[in-house]
Write a structure and sequence with these properties.
The complex is a heterotrimer of chains A (about 230), B (about 50) and C (about 240).
Chain A lengths: L1 H21 L1 H20 L7 H30 L2 H7 L4 H31 L7 H26 L5 H12 L1 H15 L8 H25 L3
Helix pairs in contact in A: 1-5, 2-3, 2-5, 3-5, 3-6, 3-8, 5-6, 6-7, 6-8, 6-9, 8-9
Chain B lengths: L1 H46 L1
Chain C lengths: L1 H34 L13 H28 L2 H33 L7 H22 L4 H28 L20 H45 L1
The chains are: A mainly alpha (about 230), B mainly alpha (about 50), C mainly alpha (about 240).
């Protein structure tokens, strides 16, 4: 068991070191997310619509779009330098590779969200500080679900010629539940409702997380098999 | 009786769709069979 | 010789199935357009239901077959299951498209709009997108073990997603206008027995149609495999 966690940690650490050296992933994700938010602000007139209603949707769209970029990028790097081959040659368990990539993707996306949240707060004039804790919980659960299914599909799409376009095409329809649930919950939290009011959404997201982490653990052997 | 038009359109779509799909299947099958026949003939020649 | 025999057997059983399907389809058509009385509230357009629901059932059934075959493929690694998954997905997408086309045509005169973001419509649309992506994935990878494994994973994940999609869109839009014949309390509630019988015949006819199409489509895939095998043989021998 100790060895298994060490394997996961080694993969996460490797990704973290690469990112610290290049700073490619984080900067491109963050700038892209900000651009998505700005374009939405231009296309939806905020003086007519209430920011509270549109805001959560825009924020999640920005997260999902830049998240897809991050997922694509994380496996592309492995592929380009033949790093995946190396990983597969090590005695590391396949599920450990999955969990390692999942945690590092989750980490980068969470970091990006930590920066995008203040931007969102300023641009939409929404005060998120009073609801910070439930909001963070909702964002974490949504991001986890997104990364769980995203990491699985990205590891699959990395071997395709058209990976840049296939990942979003496969990913977005599958994460419809998480998109709807996250946007709904964020909206309700910003409207001041307590978490206990949205237990059904919460249950849905937790189910999503568990089902797809489980499905990934069961099937990752068949994807990372050369 | 405006509804009749809609009913007709719906019917057209369903039966047209199914018919078109069957037709494509037939066409593809025929093309494949032709290829197969050619290949078999050629391999027969090579064998001799 | 043995091959020819088996292909003949297939074609003869296909012939039987064909006539059975044609007969049931004809019976269904007669029941739909001649026998069953017109529904009072919606009028004649309501007859769209008798092939709208079977198409939806067929699409869902086909996707279920994709799911089962995908699991069996990952378990046994036999090309057979990959073929079934592929063919079933294609037929499922065709019928899902038919549902998505007939839906608005039915909705327009009855609800007055082409499309409402109602739970059932939305989940059908998302389902369609998932399996179109599945077919695209198949189209963009070269035939072989990788394609089979990847698409099996997507086939499994896609089907697992269906209940989640269903609940999420159900809670997303709870104010949807209730269709009159298919109430959410249960199928057939408030339906005349004659309507139920017609729907039953139609369902049977479409299920048979699925078997027929599936047989054809699988035969096509087998021919393709045969050609590939011959080509490879030729390549190696020359």
């Amino acid at each position: 068991m100790q060895g298994y966690f060490n394997q996961i940690f080694a993969i996460v650490w490797k990704d973290f070191l690469t990112e610290r050296k290049t700073r490619e992933l984080f900067s491109s994700m963050f700038v892209f997310a900000v651009l998505v938010i700005i374009i939405f602000i231009f296309s939806v007139d905020l003086s007519i619509t209430r920011a509270n209603e549109v805001g959560p949707g825009v924020m999640w769209v920005a997260i999902f779009f830049s998240g897809a970029i991050g997922l694509n990028r994380s496996f592309m790097l492995e592929k380009e330098n033949g790093c995946m081959q190396g990983l597969l040659l090590t005695p590391a368990d396949r599920t450990a590779i999955y969990f390692g990539k999942l945690i590092s993707n989750l980490g980068f996306l969470t970091l990006m969200e930590a920066f995008i949240l203040p931007v969102f707060m300023v641009f939409f004039n929404i005060d998120i500080l009073p609801h910070l804790f439930p909001l963070l919980l909702v964002i974490f659960l949504g991001t986890l679900g997104f990364c769980a299914i995203g990491t699985l599909l990205a590891s699959l799409a990395a071997n395709l010629k058209t990976r840049d376009i296939m990942l979003p095409i496969l990913l977005y329809p599958l994460m419809v539940p998480i998109a709807i649930a996250s946007v709904r919950m964020t909206g309700e939290i910003l409207a001041g409702e307590p978490l206990s009011e949205m237990l059904n959404w919460m249950g849905l997201v937790v189910c999503f997380d568990f089902i797809f982490i489980g499905a990934a653990v069961m099937t990752i052997d068949h994807i990372l098999e050369e | 009786m405006d509804q009749l038009g809609f009913l007709f359109a719906a019917n057209l779509c369903v039966w047209g769709g199914i018919f078109f799909y069957v037709l494509t299947l037939k066409k593809r099958q025929a093309a494949l069979e032709r290829d197969l026949q050619l290949l078999k003939e050629e391999s027969g020649k090579d064998g001799d | 010789m043995a091959e020819e025999n088996s292909s003949k057997e297939i074609s003869s059983s296909q012939g039987g199935l064909f006539w059975l399907t044609a007969g049931t389809m004809l019976a269904a058509l007669i029941a739909i357009y001649v026998w069953v009385p017109t529904e009072k509230n919606e009028g004649i357009i309501q007859r769209v239901m008798y092939f709208h629901i079977p198409c939806a059932w067929l699409a869902f059934f086909a996707f279920f077959i994709v799911f089962v075959s995908s699991i069996l493929f990952l378990w046994k690694k036999e090309r057979e299951w990959d073929i079934y998954a592929h063919c079933s997905a294609e037929i499922g997408v065709i019928f899902c498209s038919l549902v998505l086309i007939t839906g608005p045509i039915w909705a327009r005169p009855v609800w007055g709009v082409w499309w409402v973001w109602d739970a059932r419509l939305t989940s059908t649309l998302v389902l369609w997108l998932i399996y179109v992506a599945y077919l695209m994935l198949r189209g963009q990878t070269e035939a072989g073990s990788i394609r089979a494994r990847y698409s099996a994973v997507v086939g499994i994940v896609g089907f697992l997603d269906i209940p989640l999609i269903h609940f999420s869109v159900l809670w997303w839009r709870t104010f949807h206008p209730k269709p009159k014949v298919i109430s959410s309390e249960g199928l057939g509630k408030g339906m005349d027995p004659s309507m139920l019988i017609t729907l039953g015949i139609s369902l049977a006819a479409f299920t048979l149609l699925y078997c027929l199409l599936m047989g054809r489509r699988v035969a096509l895939e087998r021919t393709k495999d045969e050609i590939d095998r011959l080509k490879r043989e030729k390549l190696y021998s020359s």
